[in-house]
From TrEMBL:
It is found in: Cytoplasm. The active site is at residues 95, 167. Its EC number is 5.3.1.1. NCBIfam families: tim. GO terms for cellular component: cytosol. InterPro entries: Aldolase_TIM (IPR013785), TIM_sf (IPR035990), TrioseP_Isoase_bac/euk (IPR022896), Triosephosphate_isomerase (IPR000652), Triosephosphate_isomerase_AS (IPR020861). Belongs to the triosephosphate isomerase family. It catalyses: D-glyceraldehyde 3-phosphate = dihydroxyacetone phosphate. GO terms for biological process: gluconeogenesis; glyceraldehyde-3-phosphate biosynthetic process; glycerol catabolic process; glycolytic process. This is Triosephosphate isomerase. It is an enzyme of class 5 (isomerase). It comes from Methylomarinovum tepidoasis.
């Protein structure tokens, strides 16, 4: 019922040429009628080249963030209308690197999410706990708070146009993946919490897992009942490993 989704977060990597080549290799390597929805999120500056390369392919182009405003004196930001002009259909919001390195808090993340929704871009909302929070038994409280901050602003119905990514911070870029059981426990919790606010929406919203997913561990994670695909960092930078992960989601 929920179409699996696998999205590559290329972070601050590559060149215009390598980004275009990677996009071409991914699009070219997908099986015909692939049952998995696929997206890639290059750096902002490579979006035009990647979008051009992916024209007439099923691979969606996403951004790694989106401004909380439409236009104006907001140096360094890129707005949802700008992203749309270049063919973006997805935007990551609330990635832990934005939250922890650049100090983006729940209110800003919610405003960014809201702008994506307003302009018809699917926000990929990242939530997840640090190792310290997990060890203190705060995992559920943290993801509940991060999610509710967004729902308070955008409303539960916004999830019809959005995707959630559970990304435990301790698993991102560390090679330390959550076990399928650890991930499923949190995904099931998120879906249960959402069900209390809207059963149909909770059943339909896709919840991706992110954190050191690779070609070897993807299938066991994606086999879990509430894991609907993945947000992939490091392993999305090589077409063959990314395509193996896509295959594991089918
Ligand atoms: C991410 O940055 O969203 C991510 C999941 O990274 P990695 O796959 O490298 O852990």
């Amino acid at each position: 019922m929920r179409q699996p989704l696998v999205v590559g977060n290329w972070k601050m990597n590559g060149t215009r040429t390598s980004a275009r080549d990677l996009a071409a290799a991914i699009a070219g390597g997908l099986p015909a009628n692939c049952p998995v929805a696929v997206g890639v999120c290059p750096s902002f500056v490579f979006i035009p080249a990647v979008a051009e390369q992916l024209q007439d392919t099923p691979v969606q182009v996403g951004a790694q963030n989106v401004a909380d405003q439409d236009a104006g004196a907001f140096t360094g930001e890129v707005s949802a209308p700008m992203l749309k002009e270049f063919g973006c259909t997805l935007a990551i919001v609330g990635h832990s690197e934005r939250r922890l390195i650049y100090g983006e808090g729940d209110a800003l993340v919610a405003a960014r999410y809201q702008k994506a929704i307003e302009h018809g871009i699917c926000p990929l909302l990242c939530i997840g706990e640090t190792l310290e929070q997990r060890e203190a038994g705060e995992t559920f409280a943290v993801v509940d708070r991060q999610l509710q901050a967004v729902l308070d602003v955008a409303g539960i119905d916004s999830l019809k146009q959005a995707v959630i990514a559970y990304e435990p911070v301790w698993a991102i870029g560390t090679g330390r993946t959550a076990t399928p059981q650890q991930a499923q426990e949190v995904h099931a919790h998120i879906r249960r919490q959402l069900a209390a606010q809207g059963e149909e929406i909770a059943a339909q919203v896709r919840i991706l897992y992110g954190g050191s997913v690779n070609a070897d561990n993807a299938a066991s994670l994606f086999a879990m009942a509430d894991i609907d695909g993945g947000l992939i960092g490091g392993a999305s930078l090589k077409a063959d490993s990314f395509l193996s992960i896509v295959k594991a989601a089918a």
